[in-house]
Amino acid sequence: MIPHRLKSARAKAKLTQEKLGVLAGIDESTARSRVSQYESGTYSPNFDTMCHFARVLNVPECYFYIIDDAFAEQILALYEVFRAAQK
């Protein structure tokens, strides 16, 4: 997982660390600290947790794992087109 991608997607969604954690199913008492640790790279969440974050943040799961930043942004743009076409 690329930590800065989680922080970037959360900021774009205008969510606090606590709110993101709670919406992703993390207990409210630890949500802020866990998301903070994920964003700083101190700990890495498991894939299931990342899938929950992706759903809440409306980004594809792979966005958090692609190493090349430019490619990750292209995937994000493609995902937005895909989601718009599904509506």
From TrEMBL:
GO terms for molecular function: DNA binding. Coiled coil: none annotated. It comes from the Bacteria. PROSITE patterns: HTH_CROC1. Transmembrane segments: none annotated. Gene3D superfamilies: lambda repressor-like DNA-binding domains. Residues 6-64 form the HTH cro/C1-type domain. InterPro entries: Cro/C1-type_HTH, Lambda_DNA-bd_dom_sf. This is XRE family transcriptional regulator. It comes from Rahnella woolbedingensis.
